[in-house]
């Protein structure tokens, strides 16, 4: 019996687009490398995938191709419907955990950016010359309304078309 050890360190389990996982799935699909015993043994369920959809697809593939999946951290052989249910519930927790980690990371990055003076949000679609013109008018002390009126009178359209308003001037500056 051939045994293949595939190590897939340093990659996020949020996606199956990882060399190690793809190699293991390809070996299982071919069936030629296994002497009758076709099993994917994983150290931790949440290292295989953190996606309920991907995990469900792996289970369906295993059933269709006739191989089994064992998660050592859980001690679960997923060859029965009940064991697949338990693993699926645990996979939902793993997916939730990944989302919570992502939200925490995003919030921490936003704090760091604010501390460095980087304003979060989309990049302005206002051409640089118009933004410079608005900045110059604001530096002269013109009100947002008077700047909007001047831009409208000059026929300069805002990025999304229509007319300039004090709020669109404020966002553009």
Can you tell me about this structure?
The chain is mostly helical. 54% of the residues lie in helices and 6% in strands. The protein is built from seven helices and three strands, in the order αβααββαααα. A hairpin with a 4-residue loop joins strand 2 and strand 3. The model has no long low-confidence stretch (mean pLDDT 85).
Layout: helices, strands, pairs:
Layout: H1 19-30, E1 39-42, H2 45-48, H3 52-65, E2 68-71, E3 76-77, H4 81-115, H5 128-139, H6 144-153, H7 166-172
Domain Cyclic nucleotide-binding: 1-35
Organism: Microbacterium murale
Protein name: DNA invertase Pin-like site-specific DNA recombinase
**Oligomeric nature of the chains:** single chain
How many helical stretches? 7
Give the strand order of the largest sheet, numbering strands 1, 2, ... along the chain. Answer: 1-2-3
* Sheet of most strands: 3 strands, mixed
CATH class of the largest domain: Alpha Beta
CATH superfamily of the largest domain: Resolvase, N-terminal catalytic domain
What value does the average pLDDT take? 85
CATH fold title of the largest domain: Rossmann fold
Number of domains: 2
Structural class: mainly alpha
